[in-house]
Amino acid sequence: MSNTFQVDLRGIVDLLSHHLYASPRVYVRELLQNAVDAITAAEVPGLVSITTGPDQLRVTDNGIGLTEAQVHELLATIGRSSKRDELGFARHEFLGQFGIGLLSCFLVADEIRVHTRRAGAEPVLWQGYSDGRYSVSPGDEREPGTTVTLVPRRGAEHLLSGSTVRELAELYGSLLPVRVEVDNVAVTTGSLPWPGGDLMAYAQEVFGFRPLDVVPLDVPEAGLTGVAFVLPTPVNPAARGGHRVYLKRMLLAESIEGLLPEWAFFARCVVDSTELRPTASREALYDDGLLADTREAIADQLRGWLVRLASTDPRRLGEFLSIHHLGVKALALHDDEMLRLVEQWVPVETNLGHLTLAEFRERQGVLRYAAGDDEFRQLASVAAAQDLGVINGGIVYNTDIIERLATVDAEVRAERLEPADVAARFSAVDAEAELRLRPFLTVAQRRLDKLGCEVVVRGFDPATVPALYLVSRAAAFNEQFTASRDAADDLWGGVLDALSRTMPTDRPQLVLNHRNALVRRVTAIADPGLAGLAVESLYGQALMLGGHPIRPADAALLTSSFMGLLDRAVPGEDK
Ligand SMILES: Nc1ncnc2c1ncn2[C@@H]1O[C@H](COP(=O)(O)OP(=O)(O)OP(=O)(O)O)[C@@H](O)[C@H]1O
């Protein structure tokens, strides 16, 4: 036995309003679309005229109209559309295709009236109700075309008011190639705002900003033209910005995602396409191969813009990067194009001044970086004095970008600056001076032994730096390790003790600069007590200069050495 599906219209309308369309306001778009399609089918110079009033809304077109048979077939059959071919494919020239758009009127009205006439046929009046009934009767005499009348549902009157309808018709339809009037005033502009025109003003109007630059877009395979506006202020690349997309000049939505690759976060586009397809809700682009190709083509055009800027207008590129460098750098971590852009164009802080990574590599042969800001500050001037370039890897993403460059490009060498690299370039003091320093060094070493620090004297530039506290990575690990062992309970402490026997034992060093006049005077102090206090002070100063953590033992030492020096510096007798 074969039966036919029954359709519960209320259920379908509920489905549309709550699950398909984001807002009942889309009914204006659907009515406009049907009118424009009817005009396209009729191949006449068209006019869509919308009139509003307290009791009803009317949309009249001089399009192809419907015969009585078509009214039964098309208006009363959900999912039936005249805009698909025999094989069910959307016919290219039309906006609609799904055969459900008219139902959106039930989001705002309980009754839809369609008064229509096909040239050479009798006029027909179709009345459909949201409870699923419909009737067909002979219509009054009229010109070929169609008038759709909606009677507002109670509570939905504001959605059919003159001002709302005008706003919506303008929003969706302002670029349509067919003239559309609301209460006798045109809402259509008749032409696309690009390629000519005042696009700066246009961006201000639609997006509310004055772009840094305007990039024309053209993707013939998607029948796409438009513009990308480059944002004049920084944005978070993770916050997806939508694009304004028109399909066959009808607005799809103001905030469409997926049109640009993630790295192009700095652009907002307005485009019109004849080939891209909408989803059934007409609120998003259908995600197919054509959309992927289009995305790629737009990406190429934006990339081309960046490359062009680099060669023709570096000043503007600099401006662009100073606004968007954080986003560009963030994306450089997973996008090779952006990585190259950063390498070539984004200046980073180095101890040789601000340079791009490419410039730095050209001069130094290697991307040598200090992993943290503190490490950089401590070593920058000393390393520079030894002709050792170093990049501040402590600034956002720098270290990750440098390491990634070395991973993707075999030619690039990245090297983390080890304090030992700097120290290796220091010169030893001569044998005679060494001998003279010995008593001082013995005192100094005794004072700093309890802090696990080794004291050495070397000559290095700049002479203004009296002392450096150098911690190799192994020593830094050792320090942390000792701190956790001290804090651990017996069982865990035992495990850590056993481990410590397998660890390298190099200790942090306090390197006193023999070229520094003060240090030279300190090393010549005959009084061991005063020499000890001076070394402790230099130790404290070097710790702070390098931004090293001050442990409780260091703090105690700093206080006692300061008090000791003060005691000796201030004249007078204790009572
Ligand atoms: N103003 C009109 N003039 C002539 N025919 C119309 C008009 N409005 C609707 N129709 C006919 O009714 C059919 C159904 O319209 P409906 O809006 O439900 O779907 P559609 O436009 O085909 O597709 P979509 O769901 O994508 O909008 C259309 O295919 C068209 O044949």
Automatic annotation (TrEMBL):
Superkingdom: Bacteria
Keywords linked to the UniProt accession: ATP-binding, Chaperone, Nucleotide-binding
InterPro entries to which the protein is assigned, alphabetical: HATPase_C_sf (IPR036890), HATPase_dom (IPR003594), Hsp90_fam (IPR001404), Ribosomal_Su5_D2-typ_SF (IPR020568)
Domain Histidine kinase/HSP90-like ATPase: from-to ranges: 23-156
SUPFAM superfamilies: ATPase domain of HSP90 chaperone/DNA topoisomerase II/histidine kinase (SSF55874), Ribosomal protein S5 domain 2-like (SSF54211)
Matches recorded under Pfam families: HATPase_c_3
Family (UniProt): Belongs to the heat shock protein 90 family.
Name the UniProt record assigns to this protein: HSP90 family protein
Source taxonomy: Bacteria, Bacillati, Actinomycetota, Actinomycetes, Micromonosporales
